[in-house]
């Protein structure tokens, strides 16, 4: 029997939703719907054809006519929606149209994947170009190969679980509603591929972030008499193309104009950029990027600002575009706010803010072709998280633009907690260059961080290769403090080098927590257990590292890593980890430690042992493996971090 939620999902809405509502829902959720279709379609189609087919399927999912539009349900799909994180993928479930459109897209993709079924007419069409998602790394390639061996329903189950975080029961019901003969078998087959939601969200599987390549040029010349180069039109992400009557003029590295409307023109007018008074932050209700004034010697250069805005709206093929994970790269919805315009090293740089994102435009000062466009999410950033932005990196150094409320800036080596901070020269909000750990190579012998002081106190931030430095905190999750305190500096010193694992991951903040101290069985002192947790701007993709340091060691060793876990975080301030340790006498031991409210630890598998309290020590053989469980004071059982 189907659940009451599923039965209600197929019932007509009590009132008409309207075709306009259906279209707005599809536009709002277009990227995840296209990604779902792309991943379910057979990999044998080839990446280029899958891209166009995925867009075609999603656009055809729009209800045709008022009667179909009125069938959008009033309640979202799934019995467990109340338990989902409102800030994560489950938030899409609150839109009653999303589940309806998702089912239509899923049905169409599964139908297209069946043998001997023709694919739908491809609209939009692209002539003379091949559109491909951006290439990923070895991990993405391995996942693509694993998914290619699954059936289409199994791929659908894997994607629904990894991207929309649906529980198995909801996936089974959705597959059944889509006409899958054996939903249970599809789920079982999907379980054969390890869950990797972070990889599913990567650009490798994003049919809305595309790169263009030519088709067979020789064959086109043989079969085409007219010159098609000036007439080729590119349809990206399902946009309907409207040919303009005239160009924008000197737009630098921007791509050709493909649409004109009053809102788009307003967003590209440098005269309409938002500019904040230099003293506005003193009376502003929030200390965030909206309170930053426009700074830099080129804020009056309308030609430069125009190029920055137009390249943002339509970057050309010579523009290098990068974005933190989970950050959209589309143009601004309206005139953004100007934060900086000036020259940094050998580039003219413009930094803009649209309320959700920071966009950094850079062009060479020597007049050569090419430009760079970088994006970062900053939604909800206040205080310490909105105190600095990266202006540029060169020769192993980084230069920051500071918030107007920052009174002093300094550098500090995170691995030397007792050393004094070194004052940093600041001119009109711009810092002097300082060493960037994000650019470091070789052995990690130091970790330079930025220390700022102002109305928010003193904070530490570190460059992790993105536009916004990551804030550093220390202490028990939910009650952590700034890492600039003596206790915070001591907590971070042995584990600073582990920050290198979080480079370019969209990290918002990283917390270090010394959660246990464990006497070693050979009497050589006590080992230090710590958990470092990185939170991201997008919400998912958080990473927690359990680390262990023996007495006298300068560095801690990572013993366990958890991704997309609540452990060691504000929502679940508990952690359990273990390590095989060799004593000075040559004996091997299993050492395990839980957070302070642990009342018992149990090891099973290759090592069987139990101990009351938050610490466990057991003799072990070299290479032995064990599964850890801990009981908390309230009776809850947790697993070891993984």
Overview of this structure, please?
With 642 residues, this protein is α+β, with helices and mostly antiparallel strands. The protein is built from 15 helices and 29 strands. β21 and β22 form a beta hairpin. α3 (30-40) crosses α4, α3 packs parallel to α6 and α4 packs across α6. Mean pLDDT is 82; it is low at 1-17, 74-88 and 216-249.
Mean pLDDT: 82
How many strand segments?
29
| Largest sheet descriptor | 10 strands, mixed
The dominant shape is globular
Helix content: 10-25%
Radius of gyration: 27 Å
Q: Return the structural class.
A: alpha+beta
Q: N-to-C terminal Cα separation, in Å?
A: 36 Å
What proportion of the residues form beta strands (DSSP E)? 25-35%
Low-confidence stretches: 1-17, 74-88, 216-249
Q: Number of helical runs? A: 15
List the helices and strands and how they pair.
Layout: H1 4-9, H2 19-28, H3 30-40, H4 47-60, H5 65-69, H6 96-113, E1 129-133, H7 138-148, H8 152-162, H9 168-177, H10 183-190, H11 197-200, E2 210-214, H12 217-223, H13 262-267, H14 302-313, E3 319-323, E4 337-344, E5 347-353, E6 357-364, E7 371-377, E8 388-394, E9 397-402, E10 406-413, E11 422-423, E12 426-427, E13 430-431, E14 434-435, E15 448-454, E16 457-462, E17 470-474, E18 481-482, H15 486-492, E19 507-519, E20 526-536, E21 543-549, E22 557-563, E23 576-582, E24 588-594, E25 598-605, E26 609-612, E27 615-619, E28 626-632, E29 637-639
Parallel strand pairs: 3-7, 17-19
Antiparallel strand pairs: 1-2, 4-5, 5-6, 6-7, 8-9, 9-14, 10-11, 10-15, 12-13, 15-16, 16-17, 17-18, 19-20, 20-21, 21-22, 23-24, 24-27, 25-26, 25-28, 28-29
Helix pairs in contact: 3-4, 3-6, 4-6, 8-9, 8-10
